[in-house]
Each structure stands twice: as structure tokens, then as C-alpha cells.
Write a structure and sequence with these properties.
The structure holds two protein chains of two kinds. By secondary structure, chain A is α/β, with parallel strands linked by helices. Chain A has ten helices and ten strands. Chain A is 37% helix and 28% strand. In chain A, the strands form two sheets. In chain A, strands 6-7-8-3-9-10 form a six-stranded mixed β-sheet, with helices on both faces. Chain A has a four-stranded antiparallel β-sheet with strand order 2-1-4-5, covered by helices on one side. The radius of gyration of chain A is 17 Å and the shape is globular. In chain A, 45% of the residues are buried. By secondary structure, chain B is mainly alpha-helical. Chain B has one domain (2-221). Chain B is built from eleven helices and four strands; from the N terminus they run ααααβββααααβααα. Chain B has helices at 2-32, 39-56, 61-84, 92-114, 141-163, 165-175, 177-182, 187-212, 222-235, 240-260, 266-280, and strands at 119-120, 130-132, 137-139, 215-216. In chain B, the strands form two sheets. Chain B has a two-stranded antiparallel sheet with strand order 1-4. In chain B, helix 1 runs antiparallel to helix 8 (187-212) and helix 1 (2-32) crosses helix 9 (222-235). The chains are: A alpha/beta, B mainly alpha. At the A-B interface, helix 2 and helix 3 of A face helix 6 and helix 7 of B.
């Protein structure tokens, strides 16, 4: 069953059309990758889903409910978490404060403590640095914090925007391992990545965005062997 | 020596009022990223609300303050909802001009209701003065209550921000509105709460200010408003300890220059010090050293 359906979505920045009527769906339990070049509209798509940018036309359905006009902050308690591009951790707040803000919509104190323990287990480095301002963490650690913060809301669907951007190769591998783990523990993942090779390797299905439209879509393994994709995105 | 101490203490007291007002400027700036130039006039409205309750209707001072706080809180939240929220995505200049417009609106509404004559405000503090050093140092009870109120407010506010969910949401919104909304924080509600707190504090500041300087007119709020804004910039706008520090320093400088240099030049001296501080530290004493896009 589709947990997220995007239908004929159109988004504008002023008079410039960034998304030109795209449709795709994410089924419960899948990892779906959106790949494409810079400026293709990947980030815009995610930001429109979580209400940071308004949609001009089209529909976004979550769990069958139309959420196109639902204010973004209400989606968190509905089960959608968004790890934004550039991580956007609260740099002046401590790691712990950041994580607790991730659980902002939850009221169950004890369970929040349990979630916190889980996050620390998954990311031991965050526990070591829990009282440090988030701005003092390295890029990879900030990415882990952004993911941990999103997990604190116990999402059913997690949107991740360029989690590997700007990270060293060691961290990139680690981040992709973490995404696999998050998926394995039952969270559906919609992943936007420029690192198409890595994204396709872990995804079930993928959509290729080109200047605001979906140019290609299909099974991730098949796309990996598609000549067009190989040439344009896998630099082979 | 005793007279210096007396001027100094009343300077700290005046500075405490500036600090309480400056909190309103600094919190709204830090969280909503706007300068609420109508903030000073909310103090005046608070003053008139308390004046009406206590002097005209004969209610006890504490009830009067409570009414003033309610009136100012409702007013502040309403102004934010009606005048500022629709301009959330507009240029900061448009918001600034709107705030100046609201300031004139409040002054003229007060003028219409209460007239331009000054009203004699009855002090909300009815306690004996503190007499020290065999009567050589006489500190008024208003002065003491003002300083204590400022300390209590500072502690309460800091605790609120550090210990409550809403406080943490305010910090999150002040740093990154978009990311805050991704945490499930209602940014509009958080900004409304900020205005509510700032305006409630303005009512308290109004009560203390008018108790120390009992002549109340529709323009009572503007000069303290400008000075408290100066104090907020001086201490580093957006910073709560900065508002406290800036307010106290400003009050002390103002009072000492009134006493020892010239009462006419005291305002000029205060602003001259501000200019010098901003030349050396453009972000104020405790301001963040960041490049802000305005």
C-alpha cells in the first residue's frame, strides 16, 4: 500500500516553474530514491511534501489523506520526518537539546528517554558529545545528529535530503549503512541523493528527475544497468 | 560617597526598568527577526490600564498590575496577529514601517481616550523606604522593588527558556524557522507566545516606570522605549543577558551623568556611549559575532 503518493505536483519559485507535474509513489517498507543532477528539483520535491514550499498544483497524499495544504509542522505527529539538505542542526544548542527537539511532538517522557537511549546506541558519538553545541560537531557527526533528531519523532516515513553531501568517503559508507538499518527497523525511506550509485544500491525503486520532470523510473537494480543512467549519473 | 551610592542605586533601578523593556525588544528580534517599535507604547497602554484600574476604579495595586498585564498581553498578541503576521514573508523594511505605524496608532488612541494632559500615577509600591547608614542613605521602596522585580523576571525567563518545551521551541525558531517547523514546532504560535511574554513584561515595566516617574501621558512610553531599544542593541540584540547588562549600564550612565555632568546632556551622553560601543563591537557587548542578512 502506498504510504505516500505524489500526483501531478507543480511548484513555482516566483514565475519560474521548478517542478513540472511529477507523480510518484512510495510504498510502506520501501526505500525509494530520487536521483538527478543539481537543480533537477529533488530538494524542492521534498520541501514541498513537508510544507516548507507551497505546491501550486497537484496533490500529495499520505496514508490516503490529502496533505497538500496541511501546515508542515503538523506532519511530524502524523509520522513524517524530514532530514533536510545541509543538515540544519541547531548549531548553538547542544546535541541533547537538538535530539529532544526532535521529540517535540511527543509527550511520553519515559518513552522519549528510551528513544534517546536507542539513538545513543546507534550513534555512540552523539552520546559522547551530548553536551557540546551542535555547531562544533564535524560534518559527518552533524549528519548523524540530524538523522537521530528525525528518528526521535519515531517516524513511519523518513525523507532524507542529500545525507552524504560533503562527507568524507568513510562517513558516506557509514551514513548509507545507517539508512539501511533505519529501513530494516521498519521505517519507510524516501531518499534524495546525488550519489546515484550508492542510492541505487540500497533502494527498491528509483525515479530520475531532470529539470522538474521524471525522466526515468523503475526498479533500482534495473536502473543501475540502464545505459542512459550509467552515462549520466554513474559516470561510467 | 553616600550621594554617589544613592545615584548609582537609583541608576541600577532605572536600568532595571530599561532591562525589562529591552527583554521585549530582544526576544521579539531574536525569534521573529523584527524590530517592534510599538513596544514602548505598549508600556504606556499598560500604564493607563493600571492607572484606570487603581486610581479611577480604586482597585488594589496588585489587581491593577494584573489587569495591565492582561491588557498588554492581549494587545501585543493582537498586534502581532493582525499587523505583523501577514508580513512574515515581506521585506524587513515593510515590517519596520508597520511597527512605526502601530506606535503612532497606540499613541493617538491613548490621546483620544485620555487626552494630552499628564495624569498623576499612584505608585503601586506602598512600602516604607529603606534607610541605611544612620539616615545618610535613603533608598525608596520603589527602587528596591524595581531591582528585585528585574532579578526575578530574569531568573524566571531564563528558567522558562531552558527548561520548558515552549522555551526550547523559541530557541529553535530563533535559530532556524524552517528546521523548527520540521521538528513539529508551530512557528506562528511560538512567535505569538514571544509577543505575549514581551507585552506582559512591558505592563510590569509600565507599572514600575510610572511608580518612579508618576506623570503619565500618551507619550510616556516613547523615550523609555527608545532607550530600552538602545540598551538591547548595546547589550547585543537577541541576547537575554545582553538586555540585562545593557539596561543596567544604560541606567547607571544616565543617572550618573544627570547627577555629575548635566541633566540636559544625559541623553546625549547615553547615546554617545552607545555609538562608541557599536563602533568597537558592532554586535553589542554580548551579541553573536555573525553576519546577519537583513
Amino acid at each position: 500500500m502506498a504510504i505516500l503518493e505524489v500526483k501531478d505536483l507543480e511548484v513555482y519559485y516566483g514565475v519560474i516553474q521548478a517542478i513540472k507535474g511529477i507523480s510518484f509513489e512510495v510504498n510502506e517498507g520501501e526505500i525509494i530514491a530520487l536521483i538527478g543532477a543539481n537543480g533537477a528539483g529533488k530538494t524542492t520535491t521534498l520541501q514541498t511534501i513537508t510544507g516548507l514550499i507551497p505546491a501550486k498544483a497537484g496533490h500529495i497524499l499520505y496514508d490516503g489523506k490529502d496533505i497538500t495544504r496541511v501546515p508542515g509542522y503538523k506532519l511530524v505527529s502524523m509520522g513524517i520526518a524530514h532530514v533536510p539538505e545541509g543538515r540544519r542542526v541547531f548549531a548553538e544548542l547542544t546535541v541533547l537539546q537538538n535530539l529532544k527537539l526532535g521529540a517535540y511532538t511527543r509527550k511520553d517522557k519515559e518513552e522519549i528517554e528510551d528513544s534517546l537511549k536507542n539513538i545513543y546506541q546507534r550513534f555512540p558519538r552523539l552520546e559522547e558529545r551530548k553536551n557540546q553545541p551542535a555547531g562544533t560537531l564535524s560534518g559527518g557527526e552533524q549528519q548523524m545528529l540530524a538523522m537521530g533528531r528525525a528518528l526521535m519523532s519515531r517516524p513511519r516515513l523518513m525523507l532524507m535530503d542529500e545525507p552524504s553531501m560533503g562527507l568524507s568517503p568513510i562517513y558516506v559508507n557509514e551514513i548509507f549503512d545507517i539508512i539501511k538499518e533505519i529501513h530494516k527497523s521498519g521505517t519507510t525511506v524516501l531518499l534524495v541523493e546525488q550519489n546515484a550509485k550508492k542510492a541505487l544500491a540500497i533502494a527498491d525503486k528509483a525515479y530520475v528527475l531532470e529539470t522538474g520532470t521524471i525522466a526515468l523510473s523503475g526498479d533500482a537494480k534495473e536502473l543501475m544497468n540502464n545505459d542512459q543512467v550509467k552515462k549520466a549519473y554513474l559516470s561510467e | 560617597m553616600m550621594s554617589f551610592l544613592s545615584y548609582f542605586i537609583s541608576g541600577v533601578s532605572l536600568g532595571s526598568v530599561y532591562a525589562i523593556i529591552a527583554l521585549g525588544y530582544t526576544m521579539v528580534y531574536g525569534i521573529a527577526r523584527m524590530l517592534n517599535f510599538a513596544h514602548g507604547d505598549i508600556i504606556m497602554i499598560g500604564g493607563f490600564a493600571i492607572f484606570t484600574a487603581v486610581t479611577t476604579m480604586g482597585l488594589p495595586p496588585l489587581a491593577g498590575i494584573l489587569i495591565g498585564v492582561v491588557v498588554c498581553t492581549v494587545l501585543g498578541v493582537t498586534i502581532e496577529r493582525v499587523a505583523y503576521r501577514p508580513l512574515r514573508e515581506a521585506s524587513s523594511l515593510a515590517v519596520l514601517i508597520t511597527a512605526i505605524g502601530i506606535s503612532y496608532l497606540l499613541q493617538n488612541v491613548a490621546l483620544l481616550i485620555f487626552g494630552s494632559n499628564s495624569h498623576q500615577f499612584t505608585s503601586v509600591v506602598n512600602l516604607p523606604n529603606l534607610v541605611l547608614a544612620d539616615g545618610r542613605l535613603n533608598i525608596s521602596s520603589t527602587t528596591i522593588v524595581t531591582i528585585l522585580s528585574c532579578i526575578v523576571i530574569m531568573i524566571a525567563l531564563t528558567t522558562f527558556i531552558n527548561r520548558t518545551r515552549t522555551g526550547q521551541a523559541m530557541l529553535a525558531v530563533s535559530e532556524d524557522r524552517g528546521a523548527a517547523s520540521l521538528m513539529g514546532i508551530d512557528v506562528n504560535k511560538t512567535i505569538a507566545v514571544t509577543f505575549a511574554i514581551g507585552s506582559a513584561l512591558a505592563a510590569i515595566a509600565g507599572a514600575l516606570l510610572c511608580s518612579a516617574y508618576p506623570s503619565l501621558t500618551p507619550y510616556t512610553g516613547s523615550m523609555p522605549g527608545i532607550k530600552a531599544f538602545t540598551a538591547a542593541v548595546f547589550g547585543g540584540i537577541g541576547s537575554i543577558p545582553g538586555a540585562l547588562l545593557g539596561g543596567i549600564i544604560l541606567g547607571v550612565i544616565e543617572n550618573l551623568s544627570k547627577a555629575y555632568i548635566s541633566s540636559q546632556l544625559s541623553d546625549a551622553i547615553v547615546f554617545a556611549v552607545l555609538i562608541v560601543v557599536l563602533l568597537v563591537r558592532p554586535t553589542g557587548i554580548l551579541g553573536r559575532q555573525i553576519n546577519e542578512k537583513v
